């Protein structure tokens, strides 16, 4: 019985070592890019999206829990340093902060996303505003995140393009709907 237990523990140990070695060669960072065309001017879209207070109308994750606590902290809303704090009992929404880190008027908005619960990680995103004509623009959302070793092994089994990309597409659709009303 003792030798059987030792063999089982040896196999489990070997599997763990193999996974840790494989994780050394698995990518740690990923970028997801999605875009949409909006029948609105760059100025209108930029002025709408720089304010965290508007997120409750279009942000897919916040819309999942209408009871989520939302608070604007830091600098004045719409400025670099303004932070949207959100807290939800829903695991999909969770608890975290969404900070405007850099705003280039009518060109780009950069955010840092700090997820605090139920998972702890940091991501960043950039919204690019590209005019097509006077009343139409293209909004491009770049999402950057990753997982440190050895957690990055999960990226072999999770399709982040599908998981997060789908949520970003939903949010972009909500933004388009809000601005084309």
Give an account of the 3D structure.
This protein is an alpha+beta fold. It has a single domain (2-179), classed as 2-Layer Sandwich (Alpha-D-Glucose-1,6-Bisphosphate, Chain A, domain 4), CATH 3.30.530. The chain has five helices and seven strands; from the N terminus they run H-E-H-H-H-E-E-E-E-E-E-H. The chain starts with a helix and ends with a helix. The mean pLDDT is 90.
Features:
181 residues; Alpha-D-Glucose-1,6-Bisphosphate, Chain A, domain 4; alpha+beta
Give a quick summary of the entry.
By secondary structure, the chain is of the alpha+beta class.
- Mean of all residue-level pLDDT scores: 90
CATH topology, what is it called? Answer: Alpha-D-Glucose-1,6-Bisphosphate, Chain A, domain 4
How far the N terminus sits from the C terminus, by CA atoms, comes to 72 Å
**Which CATH class applies here?**
Alpha Beta
List the helices and strands and how they pair.
Elements: H1 2-23, E1 29-38, H2 42-49, H3 55-58, H4 60-63, E2 69-74, E3 82-87, E4 95-104, E5 108-117, E6 121-133, E7 136-146, H5 160-179
Antiparallel strand pairs: 1-7, 2-3, 3-4, 4-5, 5-6, 6-7
